[in-house]
Amino acid sequence: MNNLPEVESAKALMTEAMSWSVMKWLREKKRVRRTADNANAILDKLSESTKAQWNEDLRAAYEKLAQADELPATNRRGKQISSTADHQVVALAKRLKDADDTAKRARMDAEKTFDDAERQLSTSLAREGCRKAIYGWDLHEKAIRKAETACH
Asked: Are 142 and 96 in contact (CB under 8 A)?
Protein backbone atom coordinates (compact mmCIF):
# COMPACT_ATOMS: atom_id res chain seq x y z
CA MET A 1 0.00 0.00 0.00
CA ASN A 2 1.37 3.38 -0.99
CA ASN A 3 0.87 6.45 1.14
CA LEU A 4 -2.49 7.93 0.29
CA PRO A 5 -2.31 11.71 -0.33
CA GLU A 6 -5.73 12.32 1.26
CA VAL A 7 -4.74 10.51 4.44
CA GLU A 8 -1.34 12.18 4.59
CA SER A 9 -3.03 15.55 4.12
CA ALA A 10 -5.48 14.77 6.92
CA LYS A 11 -2.65 13.73 9.23
CA ALA A 12 -0.78 16.97 8.46
CA LEU A 13 -3.90 19.03 9.15
CA MET A 14 -4.52 17.23 12.45
CA THR A 15 -0.91 17.74 13.46
CA GLU A 16 -1.21 21.44 12.69
CA ALA A 17 -4.58 21.66 14.44
CA MET A 18 -3.09 20.45 17.71
CA SER A 19 -1.70 23.96 18.21
CA TRP A 20 -4.83 25.92 17.28
CA SER A 21 -6.66 28.31 19.57
CA VAL A 22 -10.38 27.99 20.32
CA MET A 23 -11.15 30.70 17.76
CA LYS A 24 -9.14 28.94 15.06
CA TRP A 25 -10.98 25.68 15.88
CA LEU A 26 -14.32 27.41 15.54
CA ARG A 27 -13.34 28.79 12.13
CA GLU A 28 -11.76 25.58 10.82
CA LYS A 29 -13.86 22.77 12.33
CA LYS A 30 -15.87 22.19 9.14
CA ARG A 31 -12.68 21.86 7.09
CA VAL A 32 -11.23 19.47 9.67
CA ARG A 33 -14.38 17.34 9.59
CA ARG A 34 -14.46 17.29 5.75
CA THR A 35 -10.80 16.34 5.59
CA ALA A 36 -11.23 13.59 8.19
CA ASP A 37 -14.36 12.24 6.49
CA ASN A 38 -12.53 12.18 3.15
CA ALA A 39 -9.57 10.30 4.65
CA ASN A 40 -11.94 7.78 6.25
CA ALA A 41 -13.81 7.30 2.97
CA ILE A 42 -10.58 6.72 1.04
CA LEU A 43 -9.38 4.17 3.59
CA ASP A 44 -12.77 2.42 3.61
CA LYS A 45 -12.78 2.21 -0.19
CA LEU A 46 -9.24 0.82 -0.30
CA SER A 47 -10.10 -1.69 2.40
CA GLU A 48 -13.15 -2.92 0.48
CA SER A 49 -11.28 -3.19 -2.82
CA THR A 50 -8.48 -5.12 -1.09
CA LYS A 51 -10.93 -7.56 0.49
CA ALA A 52 -12.53 -8.09 -2.92
CA GLN A 53 -9.23 -9.60 -4.05
CA TRP A 54 -9.25 -12.30 -1.37
CA ASN A 55 -9.99 -15.86 -2.33
CA GLU A 56 -13.51 -17.14 -1.76
CA ASP A 57 -12.64 -19.19 1.35
CA LEU A 58 -11.11 -16.20 3.14
CA ARG A 59 -13.99 -13.90 2.19
CA ALA A 60 -16.50 -16.47 3.45
CA ALA A 61 -14.66 -16.99 6.74
CA TYR A 62 -14.37 -13.23 7.28
CA GLU A 63 -18.06 -12.73 6.50
CA LYS A 64 -19.07 -15.48 8.95
CA LEU A 65 -17.02 -13.76 11.66
CA ALA A 66 -18.68 -10.43 10.86
CA GLN A 67 -22.12 -12.01 11.00
CA ALA A 68 -21.32 -13.72 14.29
CA ASP A 69 -20.42 -10.32 15.77
CA GLU A 70 -23.85 -8.98 14.84
CA LEU A 71 -25.71 -11.72 16.73
CA PRO A 72 -26.74 -11.18 20.34
CA ALA A 73 -24.29 -12.74 22.78
CA THR A 74 -26.80 -15.45 23.74
CA ASN A 75 -26.98 -16.65 20.12
CA ARG A 76 -23.21 -16.52 19.60
CA ARG A 77 -22.33 -19.10 22.22
CA GLY A 78 -21.32 -22.39 20.65
CA LYS A 79 -21.73 -21.11 17.10
CA GLN A 80 -18.99 -22.43 14.84
CA ILE A 81 -17.72 -20.65 11.77
CA SER A 82 -17.68 -23.78 9.64
CA SER A 83 -17.05 -27.39 10.39
CA THR A 84 -15.31 -27.87 7.05
CA ALA A 85 -13.41 -24.58 6.89
CA ASP A 86 -9.66 -24.76 6.88
CA HIS A 87 -8.49 -23.74 10.36
CA GLN A 88 -5.64 -21.67 8.92
CA VAL A 89 -8.06 -19.67 6.78
CA VAL A 90 -10.33 -19.08 9.78
CA ALA A 91 -7.36 -18.03 11.91
CA LEU A 92 -6.22 -15.60 9.21
CA ALA A 93 -9.73 -14.20 8.86
CA LYS A 94 -9.88 -13.70 12.63
CA ARG A 95 -6.56 -11.80 12.65
CA LEU A 96 -7.75 -9.61 9.77
CA LYS A 97 -11.11 -8.99 11.44
CA ASP A 98 -9.42 -8.14 14.74
CA ALA A 99 -7.22 -5.56 12.97
CA ASP A 100 -10.30 -4.05 11.29
CA ASP A 101 -12.22 -3.98 14.57
CA THR A 102 -9.33 -2.29 16.39
CA ALA A 103 -9.15 0.40 13.70
CA LYS A 104 -12.92 0.89 13.79
CA ARG A 105 -12.92 1.31 17.59
CA ALA A 106 -10.11 3.89 17.33
CA ARG A 107 -12.05 5.81 14.68
CA MET A 108 -15.21 5.82 16.79
CA ASP A 109 -13.24 6.97 19.83
CA ALA A 110 -11.73 9.86 17.84
CA GLU A 111 -15.14 10.90 16.54
CA LYS A 112 -16.62 10.82 20.04
CA THR A 113 -13.75 12.91 21.34
CA PHE A 114 -14.28 15.50 18.59
CA ASP A 115 -18.01 15.60 19.35
CA ASP A 116 -17.27 16.14 23.05
CA ALA A 117 -14.72 18.84 22.19
CA GLU A 118 -17.24 20.69 20.06
CA ARG A 119 -19.97 20.44 22.68
CA GLN A 120 -17.64 21.69 25.43
CA LEU A 121 -15.64 24.12 23.26
CA SER A 122 -12.53 22.39 24.57
CA THR A 123 -9.26 22.77 22.68
CA SER A 124 -7.62 20.14 24.88
CA LEU A 125 -10.27 17.60 23.85
CA ALA A 126 -9.93 18.72 20.22
CA ARG A 127 -6.17 18.11 20.41
CA GLU A 128 -6.83 14.69 21.91
CA GLY A 129 -9.27 14.02 19.06
CA CYS A 130 -6.53 14.91 16.57
CA ARG A 131 -4.14 12.45 18.19
CA LYS A 132 -6.81 9.77 18.23
CA ALA A 133 -7.73 10.39 14.58
CA ILE A 134 -4.11 10.03 13.46
CA TYR A 135 -3.78 6.87 15.55
CA GLY A 136 -6.99 5.48 14.03
CA TRP A 137 -5.77 6.15 10.48
CA ASP A 138 -2.46 4.44 11.30
CA LEU A 139 -4.37 1.40 12.57
CA HIS A 140 -6.61 1.38 9.49
CA GLU A 141 -3.57 1.52 7.20
CA LYS A 142 -1.99 -1.38 9.12
CA ALA A 143 -5.21 -3.39 8.77
CA ILE A 144 -5.23 -2.73 5.02
CA ARG A 145 -1.60 -3.81 4.71
CA LYS A 146 -2.48 -7.06 6.53
CA ALA A 147 -5.43 -7.52 4.18
CA GLU A 148 -3.16 -6.98 1.18
CA THR A 149 -0.81 -9.74 2.31
CA ALA A 150 -3.77 -12.11 2.30
CA CYS A 151 -4.29 -11.44 -1.42
CA HIS A 152 -1.09 -13.27 -2.33
From this structure: no
